[in-house]
Amino acid sequence: MPGKLKVKIVAGRHLPVMDRASDLTDAFVEVKFGNTTFKTDVYLKSLNPQWNSEWFKFEVDDEDLQDEPLQITVLDHDTYSANDAIGKVYIDIDPLLYSEAATVISGWFPIYDTIHGIRGEINVIVKVDLFNDLNRFRQSSCGVKFFCTTSIPKCYRAVIIHGFVEELVVNEDPEYQWIDRIRTPRASNEARQRLISLMSGELQRKIGLKVLEMRGNAVVGYLQCFDLEGESGLVVRAIGTACTLDKLSSPAAFLPACNSPSKEMKEIPFNEDPNPNTHSSGPSTPLKNQTYSFSPSKSYSRQSSSSDTDLSLTPKTAPSPQGPRIYLCPSSPPLSCGSLHLKKSCLLLSDSSLAPHHCSLGSPVLRKSVSFSEELFLAASGMGSGSAGKEGGPFKALLRQQTQSALEQREFPFFTLTVFPPGFLVHVGGVVSARSVKLLDRIHNPDEPETRDAWWAEIRQEIKSHAKALGCHAVVGYSESTSICEEVCILSASGTAAVLNPRFLQDGTVEGCLEQRLEENLPVGCGFCHIPYDELNMPFPAHLTYCYNCRKQKVPDVLFTTIDLPTDAMVIGKGCLIQARLCRLKKKAQAEANATAISNLLPFMEYEVHTQLMNKLKLKGMNALFGLRIQITVGENMLMGLASATGVYLAALPAPGGIQIAGKTPNDGSYEQHISHMQKKINDTIAKNRELYEINPPEISEEVIGSPIPEPRQRSRLLRSQSESSDEVTELDLSHGKKDAFVLEIDDTDALEDVHSLLTDVPPPPGFYSCNTEIMPGINNWTSEIQMFTSVRVIRLSSLNLTNQALNKNFNDLCENLLKSLYFKLRSMIPCCLCHVNFTVSLPEDELIQVTVTAVAITFDKNQALQTTKAHIEKSLQRASADTEELLQFPLELCSDSLPSHPFPPAKAVTVEKANPMGEGNFRNRSAPPCASSTVGVVKMTPLSFIPGAKITKYLGIINMFFIRETTSLREEGGVSGFLHAFIAEVFAMVRAHVAALGGNAVVSYIMKQCVFMENPNKNQAQCLINVSGDAVVFVRESDLEVASVQQPTANCQPLCAGGEVTT
Amino acid sequence: MTSELDIFVGNTTLIDEDVYRLWLDGYSVSDAVALRVRSGILEQTGATAAVLQSDTMDHYRTFHMLERLLHAPPKLLHQLIFQIPPSRQALLIERYYAFDEAFVREVLGKKLSKGTKKDLDDISTKTGITLKSCRRQFDNFKRVFKVVEEMRGSLVDNIQQHFLLSDRLSRDYAAIVFFANNRFETGKKKLQYLSFGDFAFCAELMIQNWTLGAVDSQVDDMDVDLDKEFLQDLKELKVLVADKDLLDLHKSLVCTTLRGKLSIFSEMEANFKNLSRGLVNVAAKLTHSKDVRDLFVDLVEKFVEPCRSDHWPLNDVRLFLNQYSASVHSLDGFRHQALWDRYMGTLRGCLLRLYHD
Q: In a designed cystine with A71, which of A32, A796, A1027, B339 is the match (CB 3.0 to 4.6 A)?
């Protein structure tokens, strides 16, 4: 009995009228945890009852504490008939289970009913007393911290980054149980909400156990998803990165390192005991003294979990216990394995006869499934392997060995992080992705969800082998997703193949001289662009050049990644959001035929999405994509592909070539005229974009490089595919000398459409920028005004004349119009940037397309950079660099070079101004937050991991909420728009209330993971499921901090020192 | 391709002041879009009509959801669903409770009942204010009236506390409530020249001096109902005109002092008795609630119109009224000095305000 949960019900307000006669309510409250229920007295005739109850005490196992939500039900007492439910509040008490987070949950919670929405509020206080548990075979993992943030959280320092953790839990969906036919919609919704809450708790606990086994103390980049598989069940799965984090108890102590990287500062992160149990809460202490042994741990972790990831630290040489993979032998040397695999993808990229590539798996478990997997490499052609420069060679080999040994211990060397401590990321290979089409089958035994596990294991294996083929040992920015339609499910995984610095992966044993060498050898700001693979073994007709920055190592001409832009990356100009959109019609089919049809379509879609991305990137005059996310959605009669990424111009990579249009019939005069007209338009667009995004790379004379480098104006050639290259193309090539050109052949209307669609993307209006990454290169003077929003659109396609082109156009218009609407709505925030723009597409019905966008608009001050006394700039720069440091939690390396390598030197700031012809001074006053004294505390929400102009001082715990809302009076609630608008507003309100009750004032890394909307207008009904998550935090405004620092002049002259005092 | 669903929800609720105004003015979405297009917003922002339509719909939906809360403004402050900065909340409330001059002149002094509500159609046609907007304004009046009607304490304070309005607007509402409760006639043709501001000014003076609250601040309805006892007592003033000697003495006192100071001295001298009779009779009649309702009609008929026809300058009216009320103190035979001051002090203020073209 290691825990006591205490709950007090204080009061209610704004309750609904439950008794029509008196216009009042006789309310009482039921408090339920596990199987125990307490009740308050009935507070007669009031809409604002004051219960002021005693403390209800629940004595429970910590396992239950982790799994179960606290359930509070508000009811209206009725003497003669059954009591009417007013609504419920579910409180996740997990944040109370680790000592550094919240200590009490106290505040007003909206009372939520799945039919009526929010009906008043209730004031509740919750506390937990935890006792030490000495049971080494415990099932709970209290004390492991969870973060949604995909970087090392601010105010923590990563001692070790252990690696990938995953888990999944399955159950029957209450909506599809027989009992659902006789119970009310409310009961059914509540059963579902409760079940998912339970499953999430269980999942989190199991992941926590794995983390403890790895001797970590936290999960970063925790991503939990639901698969509503309908008849076949409900799957809750999660992935994350296990870490050992150390709380930065006094950041001020680290600050001197900023100016003088003294030796002792440098040693701090490594010399300290990397013991995960720095937190004081009892349960985890036993592990500390326990000699680590694998067998018992394995036995208990397997008891009820469905794990396929082996947690033991013994090197595993034979992973993949399940289904035979045809092409992959894990023990074979990485390179041969890689090339074998690469051949396949070459074929894929050059050939249209793809059918042989999907293979049915013969494993008994997967009897009915058809699998196709395919990979998308960083560039259709522009990727390959390169020799490390002569100087780097032996070192690289050593590094590789080290990393390999560190990573080979793991079955899956994956990291869900997208932002890394400096020095962690050595090289980036490119995007690796894998997809597989499966047929869903009823999950017969929820305790043995081996099928789902096997599916994911298979995909992860594939990702791993793709990474190996790119000469990489690890995958970063890793994520997984599914798309389900009827009984067909597409599983997708993607990430960025990378070579990592082993230093962070082990217990600090490999530091020392290697570390020193590493820093000497890695040129600042371009190292990650250098190819990790071997140039001599290039499987692709790749185009490599020497790095434009250091001129020592080879770089590809284009780089695609799923991670955020590294902070030290050297970028020219600003970035922009780039999207590729695609629809493909598909015949309606059943089961296996359907799965086969989808499998056959997938490679074409991937290829086209990729081509579109390439074209658009070149059209923008840029050469790298970050934060790439490709979503393939399956519907009854179509497949949708949506890829979003942030394009940038990396200084280390060569200038992108232009786009060359070639006609099929060169002798036709008018046709040629048309072509040349188009060509001119494209060239103009590229020039315009270069100006818009301020891309003015310095001209480099050829002799410096010593390799053929296209001059900025000349085009580089990049054939779409070898097999298609015709004579004209070759001629064209010749006319441009040895230079490359990206040739688009216009040989049919399809291609014409393609070119047209390229040109239809309108840039955002002046004063607006957009990206889907955390930070926007080229903008650094953020002001504190932020606006997070969710926008949802559903369009109905006319069922007539549905062609691929019409469909594409509809989808393209939908997305473009949505963006235009956002720009219009947020026009008062100009100059501003939409960050972390996240599109999700779903196909709820035959002719419906739903697009959901969540993003945050952040204003920036275009004038700030202009008021330039030199001291001012220096100060802000210093702060910025110190900030970066905070951001990364690795103060040591950055110190010396953060100033010179800061991506936005003061000179740049002037150009920021130029970009905004709109907007006069009248926007300036908006930056001041007017909302100081409100009765309801302001809670900020943002999908980013930081809050501009503020410092996060405390993480209070993870927010992970699931809501269902249903209505049988759709028209009365304002139709589908009114219904969903109200529901999303309510979800925001409930998230804010929970954060405020934890004592927080913001949610960072907020994400709406699911928004499933179903309507039946004929029956006047609609239902919606929403799942959101994020990290509750406390932040302090930097301006407040500076005030504090004035009062404390003794501490240090740096403005950030004050942060130390505030941070707890 | 038709948009089935199209929503935008911000963590901080976006409020577009222009659209809010259009919504308050009762325009339909399509009318509002047309008006916005005419304002040149498309050219300024480079947006399309479709974008404008979607944006307008979205704002209208938000306002519709907020309306329920605006009916009880403290709820808006405590609710959790819409995160709105306090300055914006204040703006929403203030604008929602703002009213049109043309509308309030139609309704001022009328009973805020279902019957009046039925007349809103006509008011809408007459004033050119949309019916929807008329309804909102009428409902606002009625809601405020219902809440503060039977409350003790200062009327203005009560309104401010329960509706979180600005001081200015609370005072206006106090006037509306006061007029509605006492049913003062304001719609007669001869009163048409008066603005709401004129009436509100008078109402404030009357609330300060003529209500129960003026003597005792602890009674219910103190600021809403006139002090019945005071009205009864006003009969005593009749002696000022009924007693011929007193009237003559009064006249001579006023004329002596004002001789040479007024441009219209002779007209004043000729009209003194009529004017005095008018003012005192108004006081004496206030016992009957019907005559209370006609207070403003009487004041205009008995005082404002005669003076205006003789072209009295405003300054002369002021000098006259000051002297007229002050010289009563020198009348030895008159014992109701305090009563006279309570009556005339307020009336003097009102008359000066009412005296214009």
A: A32
Cβ neighbours of B52 in A, within 8 Å: 824
Q: Are B125 and B60 part of one and the same domain?
A: no
Would B295 be classed as within a structural domain?
yes
Check if A971 contacts B (Cβ < 8 Å): no
If asked whether residues B251 and B340 sit together in one domain, one would say: yes
Sign of the CA dihedral running A864, A867, A873, A876:
negative
Name the residue among B11, B55, B79 with its Cβ closest to that of A825.
Answer: B55
| Cβ-defined contact of A825 to B14 (cutoff 8 Å) | yes
Does residue A555 have a pLDDT over 90? no
Q: What is the DSSP string of A12-58?
A: EESPPP-BTTTTB--EEEEEEETTEEEEPPPB-S-SS-------EEE
B152: containing domain: 101-210
Q: Does some domain include residue B90?
A: no
- What whole-number distance in Å separates Cα of residue A241 and Cα of residue A912? 37
Is the predicted pLDDT of residue A949 greater than 50, yes or no? yes
How far B298 CA sits from the closest chain A CA (Å)?
45
What's the gap between Cα A908 and its chain centre?
29
Same domain, B297 and B197: no
Across the interface, do A795 and B58 touch by the CB < 8 Å criterion? Answer: no
Residue A617 in tokens? 């990137």
Residues on chain A touching B55 (C-beta within 8 angstroms) = 821, 824-825
Domain boundary at B52, B83, B114, which? Answer: B83
**A840 CA: distance to closest CA in chain B (Å):** 15
Q: Give the DSSP letter of residue B332.
A: T
Chain A residues touching B7 at Cβ < 8 A = 791-793, 977, 980-981, 984
Tokens of A117: 């929405």
Question: What ipTM did this prediction achieve?
Answer: 0.90
Q: Which residues of A touch B10 (CB under 8 A)?
A: 787-789
Sorted by where each starts, the structural domains of chain A and their CATH numbers stand as 1-132 (2.60.40.150), 410-441+451-507+526-693+741-863 (no CATH), 937-1045 (3.30.110.70)
Q: Quickly list DSSP for A890-942.
A: -HHHHHHHHHHH-SS-HHHHHHHHHT--S--GGGGGGGS---SS-SS---EE-
**Residue B71 at interface with chain A, using a CB cutoff of 8 Å:** no
Give me the pLDDT at residue A434, please: 92
Partner-chain residue, chosen from A108, A930, A977, that has the shortest CB–CB distance to B85: A930
Residues of A in contact with B87 (CB under 8 A): 930-931
Whether a cis peptide bond, with omega within 30° of 0, leads into A831 is yes
| B291 residue type, one letter | D
Q: In terms of pLDDT, which residue wins out, A521 or A910?
A: A521
Among A803, A819, A936, A991, the strongest candidate for a mutation testing the B interface, having the largest count of B CBs within 10 A, is A936
3-state SS class at B85: coil
- Residue A107 has φ and ψ, to the nearest 5°, of 165, -175
- pLDDT band of residue B244 (cuts 50, 70, 90) is confident
Residue B343, Ramachandran bin (φ over 0: left; ψ between -120 and 50: alpha; else beta): alpha
Q: From the list B9, B50, B79, which residue is nearest A981 (CB)?
A: B9
B51 in contact with chain A, both atoms CB, cutoff 8 A: yes
Query: Is B10 a domain residue?
Result: no
